[in-house]
Design brief:
- The protein is mainly α.
- It has one domain.
- The protein contains five helices and two strands.
- Strands 1-2 form a two-stranded antiparallel sheet.
- Strand 1 and strand 2 form a beta hairpin.
- The longest helix has 33 residues.
Length: 147
């Protein structure tokens, strides 16, 4: 796990733990077994979407928080066992800032609230950027295909 992810609070660690694949009971009362794997086509789509978001982050087309949101949407289809530390890093970022990812819904809000939320968003973006870039580079190296 990346060193910068060590800041996660205990509550965030519990949320990440709760996102692990759920176990299903065997209908005949046997031992629990993991959820079936994602289909190869769904996995390929997830890999492409995650690579696109990681590359967009590295190219400056997406900011850290929006790239995290996109990567988290697809990560369980690519890594159902949640063993990839770089995908988990983005899950950690998203879990810390999910309340900030409402920029579009701020239209029409009082100016003071909107300015405060925008400042919080900018601060979170600055705080997570270095680690997110490191994880995005690792994701592209791990899952990217030669051009």
């Amino acid at each position: 796990m990346p060193r910068w992810l060590a800041f996660l609070s205990a509550a965030a660690a519990l949320r990440l733990r709760a996102l692990r694949p759920q176990l299903k009971r065997d209908p005949l009362g046997g031992a629990a077994r993991p959820h079936p794997m994602t289909s190869p086509s769904k996995r390929a789509e997830a890999q492409n979407r995650i690579l696109k978001a990681a590359r967009a982050l590295l190219d400056g087309e997406l900011d850290t928080l929006k790239a995290s949101l996109e990567i988290v949407r697809w990560r369980l289809d690519l890594d159902p066992d949640q063993t990839d530390p770089d995908l988990l890093a983005f899950a950690g970022i998203e879990s810390q800032v999910d309340e900030l990812l409402v920029a579009d819904s701020l239209r029409g809000w009082p100016a003071g609230v909107k300015e405060r939320k925008e400042a919080e968003y900018a601060e979170a973006e600055r705080f997570f950027r270095t680690g997110a870039m490191e994880s995005a580079r690792a994701i592209v190296a791990r899952y990217g295909r030669p051009a």
